[in-house]
Structures are given as structure tokens and as C-alpha cells.
């Protein structure tokens, strides 16, 4: 499989960014290749296009499947497994956020709760900071849960109104009701 210069640049960039996102370069490149591919690709095609070993391809595909970012797709007349990414960009973003929440936010929240359950440790400042952090993460998690339940169209609409909503909050926050009108 021959990649266009546009394809190559995108794949290389995703590989570089992968390490910043907590995945290795090869996994990022595999995902980028599949993301831009109009047709599902089999492992041999991925291996050839990226110039990586078959075992790297296999491990990368398994990791991407564990993240739910890559799916197997049957190609009629071909017995090999083919792989593709979800077509809906919003679905991809939702999966990424959900998976990162499971791997990073949820364990941290559990640890903060466990630390609070231990009871007073005689370090009021640290205890208060832990409690404050837990409360903030819980608030963000609740907000995420609400947003994740919105249909894509409503979420997009909400996001496009972002700065207007912030302005509205500012106006409501400065509103002082007249006596007797509460």
C-alpha cells in the first residue's frame, strides 16, 4: 500500500503525538493509517504501509481494540481480518474521553475517597486539599456524565453556544433581583 504525502505526514504526526497521549508511536501510526483509509485494511497491509513488524502490528491492533477505537470488519471474499475506525468523529471522541476517564479519572477518584475514609490524620491542610480535589473531580465527572447522555446534534449545538452561555452566566451572576421579586 502506497501512502500519499498527506497520508504520510498525518500518520507520522499521530505517531509523534501518541507518546504524548500515553500510547506508543506505532499504535498512533496504526490508528492514523486506519482513520484515513477509505477501506478496511488487513494486518499485512498495515505492516507493509508502515514498515513495521507483523508482531508490532498485531500488538498495536489489540491495544486499539481494547480502547474500542478499531473494529474488525469482514470483507466479502477475503478470509483475513480487516480493521477500520468508527466513521462518526463524535463517537471516536466519546470513546476516547470514556476510556481515559476509566483509566485515569476513576482510579484517582477512588483513591481520594479511600483517603478520606481513613478518617482524620492530623494534617488538616492536606485533608482539606484532598477533599477539595475529590469534590472538583466529582463535579467534573457529573458534568461529563450529563454531556455524554446528550445526542450528538444537541451536544454540537451546546458547544457552538459555548461563549454565549459563558456570557449568560456572567449576566445572571451579576443580576440582583428587586426586593420582593425572588
From TrEMBL:
One of its GO terms (molecular function) is DNA-binding transcription factor activity. PANTHER family: HTH-TYPE TRANSCRIPTIONAL REGULATOR MJ1563-RELATED (PTHR38465:SF1). Belongs to the GbsR family. Pfam families: MarR_2. Residues 22-80 form the HTH marR-type domain. The keyword DNA-binding applies. Keywords: DNA-binding, Transcription, Transcription regulation. It comes from the Bacteria. The lineage of its organism: Bacteria, Pseudomonadati, Pseudomonadota, Alphaproteobacteria, Rhodobacterales. This is HTH-type transcriptional regulator. It comes from Pseudoponticoccus marisrubri. The keyword Transcription applies.
